[in-house]
Amino acid sequence: MNSNSPTGANEPLIRNISDTARWVAAYRAMETERPDALFHDPYARRLAGEKGAEIAEAMPFQGKTMWPFTMRTYLIDEFIRGQIQKGTDMVINLAAGLDARPYRMDLPSSLQWVEVDLPEILAYKEQILVNEKPKCALERVRLDLSDRDARKALFQQLGSRSKSALILSEGLLVYLTPENVASLASDLAMPQSFRNWILDLASPGLLKMLAKRKMGQELSKTGIPFKFAPPEGPEYFEKFGWKPVDVRSVFKAAAAHKRLPFFMRLFAFFPDTKESRIKRPWTGICLFEKQSV
């Protein structure tokens, strides 16, 4: 079956984890096509394909559900720019999916950008972008990140090639168990040159809410439910050597950039506290700095 073909009568809306990448690419395309777009991803519509558009269109209140993904992309872009200005010489994008940042962002040609993901999704992306040229030195590593020995070997090898590496794990941790996240955080702390880590984090309150909505129900049907939302919030990672240095609320950012649905704008005035990050539906983009373990 063609990867871009519409869903068959008996096929689930979201078939596998790769379909979530197509879905998010569709939202990036929708933001790009706005006259007041916060970022421009000219490759997103092609990367999403018919399948990504189909998933996005099937979600209830499409225009009211895309804002978290829009703001996640925007805030991560901002963090990446800031870290490059501070001397990052390598970006390691774990579970890179259909991210097109090496092509769409203004990046120094000397920057090393490494995408790590499953062979199928990287092959699909290479096919779509075959005639495009990245702005920096891009390489792709086909690897199942659940293979701990293989990923530790990769981290060691990449660590030896960089002086100040930035880890990016967008849309990854929420699908992992706490044990898997702890293992990954520990492994990432080992190479000396791995200095910073950008990730998106959800609250227990958000996961509880999403489990009742179509988004969470579709993912659960496929066997990829949301799992990780530590009650400690960003401080969860401190015991693995990662200190949060900047945490930005996706909700607050959406309000500031006029992406929140009208009926939600009142809630933007509520303070963003450690307690709210546990009890309320909350998601944030976090920048971590590695400390001595």
Number of domains: 1
Overall geometry: globular
Q: For the record, what CATH class applies?
A: Alpha Beta
* Total count of helical runs of at least 4 residues: 12
Helix content: 40-55%
- Let me know the CATH homologous superfamily: Vaccinia Virus protein VP39
Write the layout of secondary structure elements.
Layout: H1 17-32, H2 44-58, H3 62-65, H4 67-85, E1 90-94, H5 101-104, E2 112-117, H6 119-128, E3 137-142, H7 148-159, E4 165-169, H8 178-188, E5 194-202, H9 204-210, H10 214-222, E6 242-249, H11 250-256, H12 276-279, E7 283-290
Parallel strand pairs: 1-2, 1-4, 2-3, 4-5
Antiparallel strand pairs: 5-7, 6-7
Helix pairs in contact: 1-2, 4-11, 7-8
Explain how this protein is built:
The protein has 293 residues and is an alpha/beta fold. The protein has one domain (84-290): 3-Layer(aba) Sandwich (Rossmann fold). Helices cover 40% and strands 16% of the residues. The chain contains twelve helices and seven strands. It has helices at residues 17-32, 44-58, 62-65, 67-85, 101-104, 119-128, 148-159, 178-188, 204-210, 214-222, 250-256, 276-279; strands at 90-94, 112-117, 137-142, 165-169, 194-202, 242-249, 283-290. It has a seven-stranded mixed β-sheet. α8 links the parallel β4 and β5 (194-202). α7 runs parallel beside α8 (178-188). The longest helix has 19 residues, at 67-85. The chain is globular. It starts with 16 loop residues before the first helix and ends with a strand. The model is unreliable at 1-7 (pLDDT under 50).
